[in-house]
Design goal:
Chains A, B: This is NAD(P)H-dependent oxidoreductase. Chains A, B: It comes from Candidatus Levilactobacillus faecigallinarum. Chains A, B: GO terms for molecular function: electron transfer activity; FMN binding; NAD(P)H dehydrogenase (quinone) activity. Chains A, B: Keywords: Oxidoreductase. Two copies of one chain form a homodimer. Chain A is built from nine helices and six strands. By secondary structure, the first copy, chain A, is of the alpha/beta class. The longest helix of chain A is centred in the C-terminal third of the chain and has 33 residues. Chains A and B meet through helix 3 and helix 6 of A and helix 3 and helix 6 of B.
Chain lengths: ~230, ~230
């Protein structure tokens, strides 16, 4: 799977959250692009890259309840009508589109009666409408509120959650999470220093055992449910 | 009253609707500005002009369910947090903000189940949230769908409706409409060629008479209602 991350931020170097995300990118399968860094958008090239991606991530800080102007410029320029739905061809159909959005306010601000007075879903409705017009699949939004207040353990968790958002099979079910970890654990263990590797291998073994146990449990539950339905 | 019209359109000269609006501007009380024409926004100047305006009109074609990038650039640059709500000062509080939006689709496309799948209100929700944050008064949107399909009589009507949206006292009640016309009719008649002026004066007289008759009717209705309420 190829994931294309399009970052819109006018001062990327000054953004601790964007630098954090950049350092957290998975090693493979992800192409990262900073829209504001391009003097002029190469429409043909951008469109070709969209065609090649399976998942497109739009990543930005929320400015006035929307993406920064550079993302809108990208939309207005790259997403021509002919490209998106001309002649009833939909080259983006079926591709996934996800939004990674940072905000300076707590999550509770984004609701009726909250300080911002509208939900993130309402703020992102115009973007979701573009996805709908292109017959793309909209992923649940990945929102990070008040990044600078996160603790170190929260940041470690954020690295994993972010990587999963970029590369894990959706929807975000237990089975898909397990499969994602199972694929990455051996690689992670191999990257550990020699002294810590036995611990890493133990974790892998425990993970596999628990996964088997969970699958058995799921089978049992399914059986019970089947009996009840009769 | 001073109305400031901010137009966002990347190709203004090619836009028949924007050229039509420009030609339809009231002669006085309106300051018109094309955002895309400015090489760099003068933040202090833009902010000063916002302070001086009573009504701010954001005028643009709907691109991907939002304003063109130039308006977002203006928001991101001119509407600094300090300016809009810093130190609990709200310099824009109480000012009216209205949107004049043109779309290439019929009105019915903008609803659930319609071709666009979302309402104009939903598309403009991020802008309305900015207005709310600034404690401004949001006016009902002035939408023009498929301008190029309008007939000549519809266009004549559009001139009047557009001028009223820019300068008439809100809300758009019969009394406010009448007051707006009463103020402009003598001026309009004076601008007529000499041969047509008697007709114009007749229209003014008829308008005044009908206005008096309407007021009497309103008084009578109010009296009847009062009796019923007892």
């Amino acid at each position: 799977m190829t994931t294309r991350v399009l970052v819109a931020h006018p001062q990327l170097a000054d953004s601790t959250s964007q630098q954090f995300f950049k350092a957290s990118l998975p090693k493979t399968g992800v192409i990262w692009e900073h829209l504001d860094a391009q003097p002029a958008l190469d429409v043909a090239r951008e469109q070709a890259q969209l065609r090649q991606a399976d998942r497109i991530i739009l990543q930005f800080p929320l400015y006035w309840y929307a993406a920064p102007a550079s993302l809108k410029q990208w939309e207005d320029t790259v997403l021509t009508r002919t490209f998106v739905y001309g002649d009833h061809r939909y080259p983006l159909a079926g591709k996934e589109v996800g939004v990674v959005v940072t905000t300076g306010m707590p999550a509770k601000a984004f609701q009726r009666g909250g300080a911002e007075g509208l939900t993130l879903d309402a703020a992102l409705a115009p973007l979701a409408a573009v996805a709908q017009r292109a017959k793309m699949t909209w992923l649940p939004t990945f929102a990070v509120h008040q990044f600078s207040y996160l603790t170190e353990p929260q940041k470690l968790q954020l690295v994993i959650d972010y990587q999963r958002y970029l590369t894990q099979t959706q929807p975000d079910t237990l089975a898909n999470r397990q499969a994602w970890f199972a694929q990455r654990l051996p690689e992670m263990v191999q990257q550990l220093p020699a002294a810590q590797r036995p611990t890493g291998e133990l974790i892998t073994t425990t993970f596999d055992q628990q996964r088997d146990a969970l699958e058995e449990l799921a089978d049992t539950l399914a059986m019970i449910k089947e009996t009840e339905d009769d």
